[in-house]
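Q: I'm building a small set of examples for a reading group on sequence design. Run inverse folding on the following structure and report the sequence directly after it, with nothing in between.
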């Protein structure tokens, strides 16, 4: 079903775009073969590693596949829009309207150029995004506290050792008090990714580096990966919490497992367990890979939830579809029943669909602030 779904755009391109072009039959067949091979990128990924989520090809080939697959997808969308527009014109004129060859060629070129731009935007180092968030009842000692939020690194053949090293160096330069990583750190097994994740050991923050799993950790051995992250000087939060102290002030940092955990027989997210024993009246910062349960988090008194998973929707327009699949949340800041949800666009994204158009990646530095005195709630 997975491969069939991703084959449909290619079918649209073959039938509605390629075949009507004034080319020889031999040229059309040759082009069709190339398109079909490119459209099966995820099948070749499965054959290369046993998983569609971990293409084990040379980086240049992964980039080429992402460009070709993205161009096919964009071209299918453009062609369907072109067909729709032509149908409307035909109805208005009450006669058949042919699509000009030059128009077909133009949408083909546009799809290829946009796909190239999308891949370039996806694979470059994420730019810094500075965000200030007011937290109710935040202790004075935590006013100005800096949290670097990383998520969806998807360390892989595409986001490899040099890329990871650059992200680590950039993150360390931000002077973080705390670094949190909200899941989907990897695509691949430990044996495949050891060299690519090695630089994560060098992440530094005064109050440590904390990590939770995303859904992709469960594809590649969740327990093994969480133990491995612990060996890289990162502290896993497994439906648990820790107390961060500054002077006389305290902050609860909690983390839950991903909602997909049960599918692999692992414990799912349990916020009540994560907060059990947490001191009353202390603001809670929750790490939850997926944003969909934000309203439940708010009902349990969480002050700030940090999430990823959506990649911001990746492409303007597609983000609306991604939002619908995540209870309306897709990118940026949301006020949810008195809680702030910050949904990071992702430090990287899945190498199986590495395109960004109008939705940049981000290396996020969040500065916590006390709200104005008139807005403070009693503890």
């Amino acid at each position: 079903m997975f491969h069939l779904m991703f084959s449909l755009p290619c079918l649209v391109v073959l039938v509605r775009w390629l075949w009507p072009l004034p080319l020889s039959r031999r040229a059309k067949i040759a082009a069709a073969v190339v398109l079909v091979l490119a459209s099966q990128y995820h099948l070749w990924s499965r054959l290369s590693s046993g998983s569609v989520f971990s293409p084990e090809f040379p980086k240049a080939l992964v980039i080429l596949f992402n460009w070709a697959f993205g161009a096919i997808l964009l071209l299918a969308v453009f062609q369907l829009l072109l067909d729709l527009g032509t149908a409307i014109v035909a109805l208005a004129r009450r006669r058949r309207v042919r699509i000009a060859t030059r128009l077909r060629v133009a949408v083909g070129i546009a799809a290829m150029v946009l796909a190239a731009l999308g891949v370039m935007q996806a694979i470059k180092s994420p730019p810094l995004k500075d965000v200030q968030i007011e937290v109710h009842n935040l202790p004075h000692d935590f006013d100005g506290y800096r949290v670097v939020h990383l998520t969806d690194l998807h360390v892989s053949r595409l986001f490899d050792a040099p890329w990871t090293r650059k992200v680590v160096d950039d993150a360390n330069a931000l002077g973080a008090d705390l670094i949190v990583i909200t899941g989907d750190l990897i695509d691949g097994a430990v044996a495949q990714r050891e060299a690519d994740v090695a630089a994560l050991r060098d992440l530094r923050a005064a109050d440590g580096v904390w990590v939770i799993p995303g859904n992709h950790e469960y594809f590649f051995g969740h327990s093994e990966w969480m133990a491995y992250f612990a060996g890289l000087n990162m502290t896993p939060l497994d439906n648990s919490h820790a107390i961060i102290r500054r002077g006389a002030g305290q902050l609860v940092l909690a983390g839950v497992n991903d909602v997909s955990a049960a599918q692999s027989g692992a414990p799912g997210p349990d916020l009540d367990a994560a907060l059990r024993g947490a001191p009353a009246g202390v603001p809670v910062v929750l790490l939850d890979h997926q944003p969909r349960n934000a309203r439940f988090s708010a009902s349990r008194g969480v002050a700030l939830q940090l999430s990823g998973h959506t990649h911001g929707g990746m492409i303007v327009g597609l983000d609306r579809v991604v939002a619908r699949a995540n209870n309306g949340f897709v990118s940026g800041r949301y006020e949810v029943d008195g809680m702030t949800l910050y949904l990071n666009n992702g430090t990287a994204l899945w190498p199986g669909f590495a395109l960004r158009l109008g939705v940049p990646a981000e290396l996020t530095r969040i500065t916590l602030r006390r709200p104005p005195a008139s807005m403070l709630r009693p503890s």
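The longest helix spans residues 59-93.
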